[in-house]
């Protein structure tokens, strides 16, 4: 039998070659694709395991803390904790701590924002004219925020500089002022407590500059705005201050002489405050290792001092706001400066309003970190009353952009809580409001902060940037420009928070206290449930396998059942860009389009599940298409040899031997193709960037043999069961009785009837096309869907870059096999119906009409398969990602049209073979 098999293969070398090529293509593609899938799978797992974990695994918040936007979009906005105040009790926190498998439970109480006043030294030494005896310099401060787009002007400040001696005040009382040289004057409220100046003729004249009130062009309406600061230029070129900014009567010797002329100006800024449990915070984020000066917080650090309001705290090394102080200096008319001593405050105010000034220059200072000052003899930081800021409320635009609701601020409802006697409040409270703000305490409930240590947020424990959770307490928020106009306005820098308590971006806490200090801040009653969130880290989490995910889910469920709080699994979260349209501000900032990084929870789990299902599907898809192609090719070979098999049956060959003959021929071709596939797997794998191992290459041999045997089963059985007399009958296709058709006797109608003459063969070709187009539809749609919902975040991008090559190879292989299967079916139809086509040609049909007949058959079969495959691909995507965006329908239509076009191309070769039919020979055979 082997001799007969070998002779048949040699006699029909073209058919054997076709079978060999088919098995070689399918097996080699399968082997290389298997290696690619395995490699990608390892890389995906490695990438996820390296980047799935952020600072914590579970976030516990008060019940109802999820915003409407978070629920709707399954996203979490940055700095959500900035709008969450209390709601978790100390008992609930301890319950979470005691749960099994909870490695760290770190609570945080977001206390709100407060105003802090700082005195910044403005150096105007280089602007002084040392040749003048007296000079008056006007300083016009402007505070800039939002990368310089927002401007808040402050009341002008005047510096009077004289080279004449100054006599400080000794005491004041009972309406009488006594000076150090014994001079006694009647108290003048307009002149406050400023010194005397000794004129050139020895007379002593009063300086009354402190009584000037100048509010033009300022948002400041405080009638206690600062007036003048008096300095003396000493003969040795140094400077000494003769009065403090507020006009107090401190003696000159209390102000040491300095080389530089430094004018202190008040800078009121916003500072966020939060309370932590020091030990868990150190274990979770390494906050203790981020302390750069002083000491770390200790458990039990609570209020101290005489009034019980001196609170130990950590302060941030860097400022958490983006603000700049720009001071423009101008020289006031010299005549006015010379006549200033002895001029009444009212007259001086009137004359300053119309005085000529000459510009001297501008001094700029950036925001500085919080610095302690001496308050009641103790170095501390004085703060205003805490204010709670609610989260922004968003409106959704048709293009999926979010627009935070904006309204005109009403600071008069709570400005008294921020008011200082040193110059009012920050001008940025008058900017556009995006958050509701309410005072958290009484107007006199101010705090003194004892900065025991300074921490650097940049030194916190490192976490993967791909899985960074944007709910961190120590990360300053930012929003980059989303279009060219916004980026240009922002100077290619991200928008950052300002001192507007109702601003869109809330600054991260700059003052960190302990939970033990809460009773002194919010009162004993409110301190019981002042925790805003608990961040949980699960023990023994190293990889994101199925068991680990189930453990994390179980712990999250236990927390929810035990506490009744809102629990979110943040392990595997990643950042996703979100477009935000920010309305224009009232202080000059125009409307901006921004990009923020919002958090999508559980992305790593979704990606791994999706990759698992997609890899299994592609693996099975290649095998199915291979079997369909080989079955069709083997069927064609068997039908081509029906006469020969019939002769063997007539001479006594049993059915099992006929089946073995067909199976042996196909198995021999499959074995040869498997050996060739094993040989070429190495260079093809190297070209594809896949490290093909020897076991993978040798696997091609049994796979090729198995596929060939499976594909030969049905054709071999058909050959063995055929009756010898039937087998010797002419090889023609049955013709069904024609029915009336709306299409009549057109070429298209004939092709439609022909597709129904052999439904099994037509369904096989349509199934092959459907599988190829289905894979192509899934590739197009998944690319779009992953980019929009999964690959739009950082972790999704890292995974998809390694999976996309597998998708491309699988789809390309499937399409090639599907087109080849359709072409083979059409070619087999042409061979079997050769006599029929010759008869039609004899009856007057042209070569073009016959070619169109075959081409239409290919298009009909291809269109049916393409529509079915496109629908199946869309259904697969829907099952994979849980929904199909409307834009994916366009990709589905494109895939269906592309599959139909490929079917038309596959029909070209069989259609062109009609022209080579020999009319006379075919008719003679009939």
Which descriptors would you attach to this protein?
32 strands; disordered C terminus
What's the helix and strand layout?
Elements: H1 2-11, H2 13-51, E1 58-61, H3 68-73, E2 75-76, H4 90-98, E3 102-123, E4 134-145, E5 150-153, E6 157-162, E7 166-167, E8 169-173, E9 176-179, E10 184-186, E11 196-198, E12 204-206, E13 228-233, E14 239-241, E15 262-276, H5 278-285, E16 291-294, E17 310-316, E18 323-332, H6 334-338, H7 345-353, E19 357-366, E20 373-375, E21 378-382, E22 387-389, E23 394-396, E24 402-404, E25 437-439, E26 448-455, E27 480-481, H8 484-489, E28 509-514, H9 518-522, E29 533-538, H10 546-563, E30 566-569, E31 574-582, E32 592-600, H11 603-640, H12 642-650, H13 655-687, H14 694-698, H15 700-721, H16 724-727, H17 747-754, H18 759-790, H19 794-832, H20 834-842, H21 847-881, H22 888-906, H23 908-913, H24 919-925
Parallel strand pairs: 6-13, 15-28, 17-26
Antiparallel strand pairs: 1-29, 1-30, 2-32, 3-15, 3-29, 4-5, 4-6, 4-18, 7-11, 8-9, 9-10, 11-12, 13-14, 16-26, 17-28, 18-19, 20-21, 21-26, 22-25, 23-24, 27-32, 31-32
Helix pairs in contact: 1-13, 2-11, 2-13, 2-15, 2-19, 11-15, 11-18, 11-19, 13-15, 17-21, 18-19, 18-21, 18-22, 19-21, 19-22, 20-24, 21-22
């Amino acid at each position: 039998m082997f001799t007969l098999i070998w002779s048949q293969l040699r006699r029909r070398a073209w058919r054997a070659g076709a079978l060999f090529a088919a098995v070689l293509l399918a097996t080699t593609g399968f082997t290389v694709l298997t290696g690619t899938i395995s490699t990608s799978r390892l890389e995906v797992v490695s990438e996820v395991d390296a980047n799935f974990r952020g600072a914590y695994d579970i976030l516990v918040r008060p019940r109802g803390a999820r915003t409407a936007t978070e629920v709707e979009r399954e996203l979490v906005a940055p700095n959500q904790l900035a709008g969450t105040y209390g709601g978790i009790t100390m008992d609930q926190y301890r319950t979470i701590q005691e749960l099994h498998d909870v490695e760290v439970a770190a609570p945080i109480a977001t206390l709100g924002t407060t105003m802090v006043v700082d005195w910044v030294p403005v150096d105007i030494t280089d602007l002084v004219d040392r040749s003048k005896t007296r000079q008056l310099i006007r300083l016009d401060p402007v505070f800039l925020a939002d990368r310089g787009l927002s401007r808040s002007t402050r009341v002008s400040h005047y510096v009077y500089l004289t080279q004449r001696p100054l006599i400080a005040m000794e005491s004041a009382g009972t309406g009488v002022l006594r000076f150090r040289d014994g001079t006694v004057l009647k108290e003048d409220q307009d002149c406050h407590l400023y010194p005397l100046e000794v004129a050139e003729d020895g007379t002593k004249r009063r300086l009354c500059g402190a009584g000037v009130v100048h509010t033009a062009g300022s948002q400041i309406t405080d009638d206690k705005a600062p007036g003048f600061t008096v300095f003396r230029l000493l003969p040795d070129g140094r400077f000494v201050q003769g009065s403090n900014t507020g006009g107090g009567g401190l003696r000159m010797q209390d102000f040491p002489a300095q080389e530089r002329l430094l004018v202190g100006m008040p800078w009121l800024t916003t500072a966020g405050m939060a309370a932590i449990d020091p030990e868990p915070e150190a274990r979770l984020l390494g906050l203790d290792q981020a302390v750069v000066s002083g000491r770390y917080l200790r458990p039990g650090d609570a209020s101290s001092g005489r009034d019980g309001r001196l609170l130990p705290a950590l302060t941030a090394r860097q400022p958490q706001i983006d603000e700049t102080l720009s001071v423009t200096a101008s020289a006031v008319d010299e005549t006015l400066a010379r006549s200033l001593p002895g001029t009444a405050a009212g007259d001086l105010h009137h004359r300053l309003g119309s005085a000529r000034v000459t510009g001297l220059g501008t001094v700029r200072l950036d925001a500085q970190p919080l610095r302690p000052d001496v308050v009641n003899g103790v170095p501390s930081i004085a703060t205003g009353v805490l204010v709670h800021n609610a989260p922004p409320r968003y409106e959704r635009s048709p293009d999926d952009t979010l627009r935070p609701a904006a309204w005109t601020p009403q600071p008069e409802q709570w400005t008294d809580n921020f008011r200082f006697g040193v110059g009012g409040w920050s001008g940025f409270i008058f900017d556009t409001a995006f958050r509701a703000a309410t005072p958290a305490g009484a107007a006199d409930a101010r705090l003194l902060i004892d900065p025991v240590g300074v921490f650097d947020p940049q030194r916190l424990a490192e976490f993967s940037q791909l899985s960074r959770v944007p709910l961190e307490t120590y990360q300053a928020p930012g929003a980059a420009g989303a279009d060219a106009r916004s980026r240009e306005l922002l100077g290619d820098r991200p928008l950052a928070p300002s001192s507007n308590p109702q601003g869109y971006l809330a600054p991260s806490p700059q003052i960190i206290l302990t939970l033990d200090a809460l009773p002194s801040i919010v009162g004993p009653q409110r301190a019981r449930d002042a925790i805003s969130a608990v961040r949980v880290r699960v023990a023994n989490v190293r990889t994101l396998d199925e068991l680990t995910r189930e453990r994390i889910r179980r712990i999250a469920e236990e927390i929810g059942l035990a506490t009744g709080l809102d629990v979110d699994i943040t392990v595997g979260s990643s950042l996703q860009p979100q477009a935000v349209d920010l309305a224009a501000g009232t202080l000059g900032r125009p409307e901006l389009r921004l990009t923020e990084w919002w958090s999508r929870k559980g992305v790593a789990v979704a990606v791994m599940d999706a990759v698992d299902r997609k890899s299994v599907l592609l693996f099975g898809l290649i095998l199915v298409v291979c079997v369909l192609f080989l079955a069709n090719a083997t069927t064609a070979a068997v039908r081509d040899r029906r006469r020969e098999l019939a002769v063997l049956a007539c001479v006594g060959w049993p059915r099992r031997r006929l089946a073995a003959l067909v199976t042996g021929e196909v198995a021999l071709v499959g074995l040869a193709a498997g050996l060739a596939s094993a040989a070429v797997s190495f260079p093809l794998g190297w070209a594809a960037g896949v490290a093909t191992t020897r076991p993978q290459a040798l696997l091609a041999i049994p796979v090729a043999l198995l596929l060939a045997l499976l594909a030969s089963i049905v054709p071999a059985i058909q050959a063995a069961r055929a009756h010898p007399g039937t087998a010797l009958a002419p090889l023609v296709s049955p013709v069904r009785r024609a029915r009336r058709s709306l299409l009549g006797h057109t070429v298209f109608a004939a092709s439609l009837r022909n597709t129904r003459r052999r439904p099994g063969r037509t369904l096989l070709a349509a199934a092959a096309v459907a599988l190829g187009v289905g894979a192509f539809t899934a590739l197009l749609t998944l690319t779009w869907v992953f980019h929009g919902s999964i690959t739009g975040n950082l972790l999704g991008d890292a995974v998809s870059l390694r999976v996309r090559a597998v998708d491309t190879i699988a789809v390309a292989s499937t399409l090639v096999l599907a087109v080849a299967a359709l072409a083979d079916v059409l070619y087999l139809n042409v061979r079997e119906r050769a006599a029929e086509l010759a008869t039609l040609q004899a009856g007057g049909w042209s070569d073009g009409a016959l070619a169109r007949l075959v081409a239409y058959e290919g298009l009909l079969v291809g269109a049916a398969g393409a529509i079915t495959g496109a629908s199946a691909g869309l259904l697969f995507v829907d099952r994979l990602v849980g929904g199909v965006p409307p834009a994916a329908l366009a990709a589905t239509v494109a895939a269906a049209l592309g599959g139909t076009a490929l079917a038309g191309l596959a029909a070209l070769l069989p259609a062109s073979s009609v022209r080579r039919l020999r009319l006379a020979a075919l008719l003679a055979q009939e």
